[in-house]
Amino acid sequence: MKRLFRLQYNAPVTLTFALISLLALLLGKLTNGWTDTYLFSVWHSSLSDILTYPRFFLHVLGHVDYDHYIGNMMMILVVGPGLEEKYGSRNILSAIVITALVSGLVYWFLFPGSMLMGASGIVFMMIVMASLAGMRDGCIPITLILVLVLYLGSEIVDGVMLKDNVSQLTHIIGGICGAVLGLRRR
Question: Whole-number mean pLDDT of the chain?
Answer without folding.
Answer: 88
